[in-house]
Amino acid sequence: MNAAKDLDVVLLCGGLGTRLREETEFKPKPMVEIGGRPIMWHIMKHFNHFGAKRFVLALGYRGDMIRDYFVNYHLRSRDLEVDLSSGAVSALNNGACDEWQVVLAETGSESLTGARIRRVLKYLRGSRFFATYGDGVSNVNLDKLLAFHKSAGRLATVTAVHPSSRFGELAIADGLVKNFREKPQVAEGWINGGFFVFEKAAFDRLRPNDNLPLETAVLETLAAEGQLAVYQHHGFWQCMDTVREMQLLNEMWQEGRAPWHLWAPQRLTA
């Protein structure tokens, strides 16, 4: 039986992030930082908390920046000595570096999400894998998600989440505001929060050259066939579509109240 540690993780990293243009004009959205680290790092640390160590990044827009980040990842964690005459770089200490294997797969600057996943299937071990978007953090329990997927016996499972409200929530009594909550997660309504488990066979519906979205070309079809299970996550989830949401996530991290930080709750510095 597969455990979370046995599954590869596909991270969709190729979108333009047009609603966060202030940050994404010169960098891909997964490289936008929370607490000094790219949001994709936070997502990968979440998966790694449950044992996952192999990540397949589906690159597109400004994928060169993501390549550079991981090619030099081990150097960022160490003190270095550089010989300027030869260009040789040597590490002066071991440092602390994540023990991950990262596949950097170019999937095309204009490719849609379904095509991106279809194009990286060849790099995945086994017949089952995790997948998620590169712009949302959560505290979803991936072991429970995977167990639910197995019990459901379907080709795919999507995590349903409660979105945050667009507006602050007021508790009113006797003409006074008794409680104010800034953009809380709503109690009603479910949306696609990513954090998928897929069987590779779910993508048999896409031909190799199809450039189609995951949501309409795969998920809608699977739902119509009764092959899309849904895992309802009642905990924290937040995407980063706007500057305000980026600021919110950074505030939560800096103030030590980041619910997605499962891997080291006592250390909330990047």
Describe the model.
With 270 residues, the chain is α/β, with parallel strands linked by helices. The protein has one domain (4-157, 193-254): Spore Coat Polysaccharide Biosynthesis Protein SpsA, Chain A. 26% of the residues lie in helices and 25% in strands. It has helices at residues 21-24, 39-49, 63-71, 73-76, 113-120, 142-152, 214-224, 243-254, and strands at 8-13, 33-34, 37-38, 54-59, 80-82, 89-91, 101-106, 128-133, 136-138, 156-161, 169-173, 176-181, 191-192, 196-199, 228-232, 237-239. The strands form 5 sheets. Strands 1, 4, 7, 8, 10, 13, 14 and 15 form an 8-stranded mixed sheet that branches.
In short:
The chain has helices spanning 21-24, 39-49, 63-71, 73-76, 113-120, 142-152, 214-224, 243-254, and strands at 8-13, 33-34, 37-38, 54-59, 80-82, 89-91, 101-106, 128-133, 136-138, 156-161, 169-173, 176-181, 191-192, 196-199, 228-232, 237-239. Strands 1, 4, 7, 8, 10, 13, 14 and 15 form an eight-stranded mixed beta sheet that branches. Strands 2-3 form a two-stranded antiparallel ribbon. Strands 5-6 form a two-stranded antiparallel sheet.
